[in-house]
């Protein structure tokens, strides 16, 4: 791997650090900036590292056309044209400055996914500390070039992309000055079934492309995201809302605040649990060693009497010799008198 750590706003991201959690606000403001503020406040309280926006308008991301190619068939947004969907879902550009100011007040990092050059210009004016390339834009190599030229850390989602497309996007980013990159495994379904996530891909992305890897998760609970940490995800992105039944474009597959809190907690626990390769006793085990099985005298034995299954047994606690010596002992004669309840030691063999 070329870089095993990057930094966003001073927060280091990589295998040696707790997973970086991004709360994706996306369209869940539902047209109300105060709702956006509220989501940000909840994200901060939950322990998320960053809030992420999406910077586009219905005019910059598509065009007003009702031909069949521009209509959505099936799924959450069935029947809408792309123009209609994004008109209702977009984050008004005049909101960006107050949202950035709110993030500063809350002391939480904020950045965005730009969808065209003018969005990058706006975010540069606001001094965004990083950029995210959305899955649908991974094939927009000129946009990736423009973002890379800012010199800021970049995060890319790979939903729908094949290996060659991912390779091209990474190469363009690197060729244009991006030195800090995280590539997120993603399934662009809304919601996405956990069984289609193929989380083993996360480690392969890191090895194959020499980048940090993570997960953009569109499943409806936290199991997939937490599991991804054990498979190498150093960054997790999840959509967040105040109310999954709020009726917004992305509400139905987003986490509510208490679920985001649980994700932040469980992801860090999973990361801590990975630890290192270790075959030594841990601190938590040391006190319990005495309760392992060992060989004990379970019936009084006289000097010269043979050891038998009736008077020597493997039981708890562990102050006698190891049970592996049992067959060596049985049939031998005792060198001394032994009392019931006495731990058996190898020196008692004649």
Automatic annotation (TrEMBL):
Q: InterPro entries from the xrefs? A: AFP_Neu5c_C_sf, Aldolase_TIM, PseI-like, PseI/NeuA/B-like_N, Pseudaminic_synth_PseI, SAF, SAF_AFP_Neu5Ac, SAF_PseI/NeuA/NeuB
Indicate the segments forming the AFP-like domain, all copies.
294-350
- Gene Ontology MF term list: N-acylneuraminate-9-phosphate synthase activity
One Pfam family name is SAF
PROSITE patterns assigned to the protein according to its UniProt record, in alphabetical order: AFP_LIKE (PS50844)
Q: Which GO terms describe its biological process?
A: carbohydrate biosynthetic process
Q: Which domain of life is it from?
A: Bacteria
Name under which the protein is recorded: Pseudaminic acid synthase
State the species of origin: Photobacterium indicum
* Name of the encoding gene: pseI
